[in-house]
Amino acid sequence: MTAVALATACAVIFGTADFFGGLATRRSRVLAVVVISQLGGLLLVCALMPVLPGAPSPAALLWGMAAGVAGAAGIVLFYRGLASGMMSVVAPTTATTSMALPVLFGLVLGERPSLTAMAGIVLGLLAVLLVSRDSAAASGSRIGPIVSALASGAGFGGFFVLLKLAPAGSGLWPLAGARIASISLVVLLALVSRRTLRPLPGALPVTIAAGVLDMAANILYLLAARGGMLSLVAVLVSLYPASTLLLARYVLDERLNRVQIAGVGFALGAVALIALPPA
């Protein structure tokens, strides 16, 4: 139950972070948003190290750095998709892809959820598919953001799996390694492509907010994955588009169709099924 609560809270915060990230990329450059937001997240990890202590080790840092490379690729593609496409389409499409990889990996490792939890997994997948439906994108004329969303989902899925493989007693060190690797990778990409990392005026506060919220969600995920089955935790975390959708609806006035509203309801049902104790 603790893992379920942590993963559910993680989903809410992830969705909020993605909303702020989408706003930031519409106001500034993608690489600048990624680097500055992740620096904000790294500062949060450093501040919380005394609160959630752990033993640093080469394994913890290496698994974290591998996760950071996958996550950096995912977040660059994700923010690019958010900047060029509808937030209420890109975010759920990314979540659908990022859900599949850790769920399959958990099942391969031998995880066997209860029948009600398996029903929750299926309902969660259906929920993400439903909230990704948008009549404005039905023509297929904006295929670029969808391709970016699919590729970023694969990166996020790899991030979840690789963090799960980090040693259990390593505290927040895997996340520190992940941020160091991802920041270094994006800075290198900016140098090679000769792109500036200077944010545009007015974008700094929302960019830092996105990074701090994203890292807070990562911490909750790490704690949930250590205490529960990856195949269940990943599904709950991947329901984060529900909060992104609601924020996009009430802040940006993006309209939701009936199918998307039904998807939000199915997401709540998936959480309830996964939270039920096994018979």
Relative helix content: over 70%
Q: What is the total tally of β strands?
A: 0
What string, H for helix and E for strand, traces the elements in order? HHHHHHHHHHH
**Can you summarize the main beta sheet?**
none
Continuous helix count: 11
Distance N to C terminus? 14 Å
Descriptive report:
This protein has 279 residues and is mostly helical. It contains 11 helices and no strands. The protein has helices at 2-27, 30-48, 58-84, 87-108, 115-131, 143-164, 173-193, 204-227, 230-237, 241-251, 258-275. Helix 4 runs antiparallel to helix 5, helix 4 (87-108) packs antiparallel against helix 9 (230-237) and helix 4 packs antiparallel against helix 10 (241-251). It starts with a helix and ends with a helix. Residues 137-141 have low confidence and may be disordered.
Quick gist of this model?
77% of the residues lie in helices and 0% in strands. It has helices spanning 2-27, 30-48, 58-84, 87-108, 115-131, 143-164, 173-193, 204-227, 230-237, 241-251, 258-275.
Spell out the blueprint of helices and strands.
Blueprint: H1 2-27, H2 30-48, H3 58-84, H4 87-108, H5 115-131, H6 143-164, H7 173-193, H8 204-227, H9 230-237, H10 241-251, H11 258-275
Could you list some keywords that capture this structure?
single chain; about 280 residues; mainly alpha; about 75% helix; globular
